[in-house]
Structures are given as C-alpha cells and as structure tokens.
Amino acid sequence: MQKRQGGFLVSKIHQLAGRIFTKKLKDYDLYDLNSAQGRIIFVLWQNDEISIQELSKRTSLEKSTLSRMLERLENSGYIQRIASADDRRKTLVKLTPKNEELKDAYEEVSNDMLDLFYKGFTEDEIDEFESYLKKIHENLFQFEKNSKKGE
Questions:
Q1: 5-12 contacts, C-beta under 8 A, 24 or more apart
Q2: Distances (CA, A) of 107 to 41, 102, 110, 130
Q3: Phi-psi region for residue 49, left (φ > 0), alpha (ψ -120 to 50) or beta?
Q4: pLDDT value for 72
Q5: How far apart are CA 1 and CA 9, in angstroms?
Q6: Which domain of life is it from (predicted)?
Q7: Mean pLDDT score, 117-122
Q8: Is the pLDDT of residue 150 over 70?
Q9: CA-to-CA distance for 114 and 108, rounded, in angstroms?
Q10: In terms of CB atoms within 10 Å, which of 40, 50, 51, 66 comes out highest?
Q11: From CA 19, how far away is CA 17, in angstroms rounded?
Q12: Are strands 79-83 and 91-95 parallel, antiparallel or unpaired?
C-alpha cells in the first residue's frame, strides 16, 4: 500500500502560504496584521457584527485562540467587541472604520495568492480540487464535532 502524504502536504502548503501571504502584506505596507488575523478581518468583511462563537466557527479557530487574537485586533483599533442588543450575555465583534484602509490592499493580496495557488490549473481542475478540499474539511469537522460529544 502506498503511503499517503495529504495531511503532511496540506500542512506544508499552509505554512508556506502563510509566510508568502505575510510577505505580500508587507509589500503593500500592511504590517499590523498576520495571516491569521487577516482571516478574522476577512470573515468580518463578509458579515460584520457576529458573535464570537460564529466567528470561531467561520475561521475554524478555537475560542481561546480567537479571544487572544481579538484582544490584539481590538488594541490595534481594527475591531471592537460590543454587547448584543438581543442578548446581553452575547458579545458581538464589529469592525471599526480603520478597516476601510485595509480592504482594497488586502483583497489585492488575496487575489495575488489565488493566482499563485491556481497557476497552471484549468477552471475544471480548480472546481475538482476545491470539492476534494471541502470533502476533507467536512470529514475533519464531523470527526471533531463527534469527538466533542463524547467529552
């Protein structure tokens, strides 16, 4: 049986892509954010004022990790945490106006990364590849979800 390296390759790609993404951010004079913080901001650009629980789900970051990152982003002036009007026990994460300065450059960096990721791929190959990634993600998500039930 052939030894498979999917997880190892995904890990190496993740590390390498993070380094390249951080370098590209610096090329656009964006020194305040790292790639993980950018992922949080990116999710909030798609849907601002969401709960920490929802943000954790959408970024796949554990709440403890996310809380530390949110604290740094809040101290840097990129987000603010506010109480929900519907449920005072729930904290929402909201973007500040400082993010408008970032958005265009961040989207350019993201597009640069997509071009780099998919260089030499056809549209059909991209669709097929992403369907496999979604399947792997769902497998891992379900495993984690089922594991937490048994805790």
A1: 6/136, 10/136
A2: 11, 8, 5, 20
A3: left
A4: 92
A5: 19
A6: Bacteria
A7: 98
A8: no
A9: 10
A10: 40
A11: 5
A12: antiparallel
Q: Round the average pLDDT of the chain to a whole number and report it.
A: 90
pLDDT above 90: residue 32 = no
Q: What integer pLDDT is reported at residue 28 of this predicted model?
A: 82
pTM for the structure as a whole: 0.73
E strands present in the chain? 50-51, 79-83, 91-95
> Can you give the three-state secondary structure of 102-116, one letter per residue?
HHHHHHHHHHHHHHH
For residues 51 and 66, is the Cβ–Cβ distance under 8 A?
no
- Mean pLDDT calculated for residue range 13-40: 85
Token pair, residue 9, equals 């390759």
Does pLDDT of 25 surpass 90? no
Query: Residues 55, 129, 2, CA angle at the centre, nearest 5°?
Result: 110
Q: What confidence score (pLDDT) does residue 87 get?
A: 85
* CB atoms near residue 83 (< 10 Å): 11
Give the phi and the psi of residue 64 in degrees, each rounded to 5.
-65, -45
Q: What residue ranges define each of the domains in the chain, with the CATH number in brackets?
A: 15-117 (1.10.10.10)
Question: What residues form DSSP beta bridges with 80?
Answer: 94
Tell me how far CA of residue 104 lies from CA of 34, 43, 48, 73, 114, in angstroms.
16, 15, 17, 19, 15
